[in-house]
TrEMBL record:
It holds the Pfam family SBP_bac_1. Residues 1-23 form the signal peptide. InterPro entries: Bact_solute-bd_prot1, SBP. Keywords: Signal. PROSITE patterns: PROKAR_LIPOPROTEIN (PS51257). Transmembrane segments: none annotated. This is Sugar ABC transporter substrate-binding protein. It comes from Paenibacillus agricola. PANTHER family: ARABINOSE-BINDING PROTEIN-RELATED (PTHR43649), DIACETYLCHITOBIOSE BINDING PROTEIN DASA (PTHR43649:SF12).
Length: 442
């Protein structure tokens, strides 16, 4: 492993888990005559054992009761382990650093650690596997979802959970004020101003205000103005498009958000919207249950959903793979590991998990009535429309993504606190370029 990449790795020692294979026994007695019309079902992976690690995520909960079905079909035994997000990343990093052959298959965040994992040789490229079985229908996955899991032109993982940034709004407030659902950023700003009434504890807008978490959500503002974090080998967060996007986002939070917005990630922002104190919020569609669950929300029956409002370049929300499945490059069971990934991301299983509210990446499933039954009807069309022009990343795609997010987030924080965004963007662009130059060719 080169020294440049080591600086991002936590240290630790982990014991390599042992694996055992069950051997079949032959018989010395004559085989009984069998009915040729009833051949035994083929189980090419009989006796194999896989270790699969998932995040504590609704998808993991949805797949767990389906595992016996896979075991019966394949003849394999699956040991399923689950961890919280930060624990998961740490566990995987420690095991891979020690060249562990386990886990065989693991759940990961492609845009957060995908490039690091792939560059370190911890992830098996899956390109050759996807074409082995025509029935798998790899072309059924959306282009953006595959873009999120691709590193240096190689498929590092298979998408299992997708996500788009959308506009949540209070239907009752818009109706009472005779305001149309905003279709552009300018219309959003106008509606926010009109509905903002802090004396009555009603705020026009809220979104993530914490330095690192806000980066993914400001990204859709950036793309919709025609910008991006980078272009080729160049940092572009001080472009006119970027400055306009950062100014819009920071101004909305500075002038129209509830107190304490600088401390808000998605739980706090969605929480105050669910309390009925905010008219608009932009955030991930996958989080919608936080505002529609009557046990969590006082406005559960008053929430509307709309396509992210368009800027100078139109509506270009992020349309990403937030979670994928990957194969350990060191696993001794590559074919068996792919068999699990292929099953878990098959049309049939995606349909079953998506019915429970886990937004998958297969186009055909979104066209099935059962495939959309786990989502509000109004949101389904928003998701489909978002997928048409969405961007496959929601942050700078770098190995040092955490460092890069802090650099970008700092620009927006300057705006929220009344600082000079242009000066902050120029300085941050130099810092981001330095990160990119350091990683170039690594």
């Amino acid at each position: 492993m080169n020294q440049q990449l080591k600086k991002w790795l936590p240290t630790g020692i982990v014991a390599v888990m042992g694996m055992s294979l069950l051997a079949g026994c032959g018989s010395t007695t004559p085989a009984p005559v069998t009915d040729a019309s009833k051949p035994a079902a083929a189980k090419p992976f009989e006796g194999k054992k896989l270790t699969v690690v998932t995040a504590n995520h609704p998808w993991g909960e949805a797949i767990k009761p389906l595992i016996p079905e896979f075991e019966a079909q394949s003849g394999m035994k699956v040991e399923l382990q689950s961890f919280f997000e930060d624990q998961l990343t740490q566990k995987l990093t420690v095991q891979f650093t020690s060249n562990s052959a386990t886990p065989d298959v693991f759940m990961y965040r492609p845009l957060q650690e995908g490039k690091l994992f792939y560059k370190n040789g911890w992830v098996q490229a899956l390109d050759e596997f996807t074409s082995k079985d025509a029935n798998y229908d790899f072309g059924d996955f959306t282009k953006s979802s595959i873009g999120s899991t691709t590193v240096d032109g190689k498929l590092a993982g298979i998408p299992i959970i997708t996500e788009q940034e959308i506009l949540y709004y209070r239907k009752d407030l818009l109706q009472k004020a005779n305001i149309a659902v905003p279709k552009t950023i300018d219309e959003l700003i106008a509606a926010v101003k009109k509905l903002h009434d802090p004396k009555a504890e009603m705020y026009g807008f809220v979104a993530r205000g914490q330095r690192s978490p806000l980066v993914t959500q400001v990204s859709s503002f950036l793309y919709s103005e025609g910008g991006d974090f980078t272009k080729g080998d160049k940092a572009t967060i001080n472009s006119p498009e970027a400055i306009k996007a950062f100014t819009t986002y920071s101004s909305l939070l500075k002038d129209y958000a509830p107190p304490g917005v600088l401390n808000m990630s998605w739980p706090q922002a969605l929480g105050i919207f669910a309390q009925g104190k905010v008219a608009f919020i932009t955030d991930a569609n996958s989080l919608y249950k936080n505002v529609t669950d009557p046990e969590k929300s006082t406005v559960s029956d008053k929430v509307g959903y709309a396509l992210f409002p368009g800027g100078a370049a139109g509506s270009k929300p992020y349309n990403i793979t937030s979670w994928g499945l990957a194969m350990n490059a060191k696993t001794a069971n590559k074919d068996a590991s792919w068999e699990f990934i292929k099953w878990a991301s098959s049309k049939d299983v995606v349909l079953k998990t998506q019915k429970l509210g886990n937004p998958g990446a297969r186009t055909s499933v979104w066209e099935k009535p059962d495939g959309v039954s786990g989502f509000p009807a109004e949101m389904v069309q928003v998701i489909k429309d978002s997928a048409k022009g969405g961007i496959d990343h929601d942050r700078p795609v770098l190995i040092g993504v955490g460092e890069a997010r802090d650099v970008v987030g700092g620009v927006v924080l300057q705006g929220i606190t009344g600082g000079d965004i242009k000066a902050a963007a120029d300085k941050a662009n130099e810092e981001l370029q330095a990160i990119m130059d350091k990683e170039k060719g690594k």
